[in-house]
Amino acid sequence: MFRKVSLLAVVCSLVLSISCAQNSQCADTPKTPVSTAPGSDAVLVTVDGEAITESGFEKDLSGREKGAIIKAKAELYEAKKAVLEEFVFNKLVATEAAKKNISVEEYLKKEIDDKIKTVKDKEVDEFYK
Q1: pTM (2 decimals)?
Q2: 93 with 103: CB under 8 angstroms?
Q3: What is the sign, positive or negative, of the torsion defined by CA atoms of 103, 105, 108, 113?
Q4: pLDDT of residue 65
Q5: Closest residue by Cα to residue 2 from 74, 87, 54
């Protein structure tokens, strides 16, 4: 789903760029850096001399538009959370492997793979009876 949102954003950007190239009254590029902080008052774009801030833009959204922004923010949050959790896991594993003077692969094999028991079909059948 995140890929669809990203693809949609790229397509919209291209369409806007093509339209702006043909129309001299398109929005100007913001003079100040755009903040990624939620609800910030960073200028996103200037249209006909009027600065559009992130908070003003989001306040004016309604219905599906607002729902799409909320959904995209939730997906971004989940993506960042998943990447951060993997990053922390990898850091912790690397630290523990270094303490034991072994590679990360050896550590994972010793601490996880070697501890996994093979389950027999008979055990599965008995469990689900």
Answers
A1: 0.52
A2: no
A3: negative
A4: 86
A5: 74
